[in-house]
Amino acid sequence: MGNRISRILKRLFDYPIKRKPICFYRQEDFSSTGEPLPKEEQDTHGPLTEYDKLVQAFYSRLLEQRRQSRENEEKNRQYNLQKVMQRFPGWNELTISNLHSLFLLFDQNLNGMLNFDDFSAVLESLGDESSCEYRKQKFDETDIDMDGWVSYDEYLEMVYKFNKQEGNELVGLAKLCYEIAENIKFVSSLSVGEQLEYGLF
Q: Which residues contact 118 (CB under 8 A, 6 or more apart)?
């Protein structure tokens, strides 16, 4: 019975029915069933009109400007990252990226600032075991204007200098942040099989 119905449907329609394409491709490049048109069918529109040339020139300029904009953004990001890494010797790009992610995660008010509770939550997530009083003291030392908030730069400064440093060696929380970033780097370099071997799932 089922085979008979499918044979009848096949005669009536191109069965199984093919989906139309998802619209991030131009519709004119596809047939009504969603199959890509052969190249020679696509190019039968004739010579370009002045309007078509104008549109092509516009999109070419737009694509070039977007490419340059992306390149400039990447250069600015790298430059800013280099400046941050100079301020905090011993930390690498991964450490700073990880701390930036934590800052965004615990910025509960989405105002680009952390209050004391947010900062304490960051420390808890990092595995810091310092007392609440010590944390409050460090927070108040960093919060110069005493408004109860610290900016991203102040946050990095506070984490880096959370424990008294001796020379250029990372100690305490600053060292912990570096080690966590290195562990993340190690785990992300493992295959799924290796992660299973280490019991990470």
A: 106, 107, 108
